[in-house]
Amino acid sequence: MKTQLTRGAAALAAGTLALTLAGCVESGRDDSSAAPDSDCPWEPDESIETTARIAWQAIPNGDAVVKDRKVLESCMPNAKISWVQAASGGDVVQYYGSGDVDLGLMGSSPATIASSKPVVDDVDIAVVWIHDVIGDAESLVVKDPAVTDIAGLEGKRVAVPFSSTAHYSLLQALTEAGLDPAEDVEVINLDPDDMPGAWQGDQIDAAWVWDPVQSQLLDDGGTRILSSADTAEAGRPTFDVGTADRTFAAENEEFMTQWAKAQDWAVKLITEEPAEAAESVAVVLGIEPDAAEAQFAGLQYLTAEEQAGPDYLGGGFATDLFNTAGFLLEQGGIEAVGTEAEYAEHVDAGPAERAAG
Question: How much is the mean pLDDT over the chain?
């Protein structure tokens, strides 16, 4: 059996541009109504008139809090900010290529692909923020209770969104278990929203995915046998990252500083007042606040000061991109790997440094 992983359109295309917002929760407040506190947490900057289009995903991190609380809009009242929903990092890369967004949330795997040559036409991005370090928030869930380890997936159909961090973790885990992803397992490209239907229709045997779909599959009788926390322990960490078009970031430094300050504020809200942060995440993800708060445990959140340090954007993160690229090259996910210094050019610690200052 052969995986559909390619460097071309299959690796990066993930569907059409989705402009719809997440649904409402039973509390009655939906994504279009005002958050409990939509005032800027610091003195607003009325001088910024940037037009920014931001791609977001339904992931329980600070970006969801910033979106719901309208922090950017209240801290930069004269900026023009629009939010574009994406189903996966592959979508976000595609949006950059078509000129539809200026900033976007994606996993470290698609960020690596977008930073490797040859890249998609007109995509020149930098990682400017680490929204979270992925742990149990992304897991391999199997349908057959007799399958207790990844070796039991031989001959099975496993769904995962291609070019995502989950895809990278799956390939790494299969390889570590001695399974050839191109021959021993049928790895199929599937958006998270399509997984429950394929699961119930017996079209897939397992899926590596994030919440809320992960929880849906577990509630439907699935069993978690491995997570991204396990692959991180094996030396393959994955991240959800904030990226920006490099020209946009260079020309809008004040905007990027405010953006990073907003993300830093949201991280501290999650870690210091998780119940309050969960109210916002619940609205954006369309789930209950208790469920949103429970998902925080599967991710690690970093402050601007931590991100600007040598272990992350201030140094070590370029090594993570470089190491990810090496593995993706082995799997046929990219055509070439640059030097570590070249990947460092696609990491910009400036916004985090200024937000921490």
Answer: 88
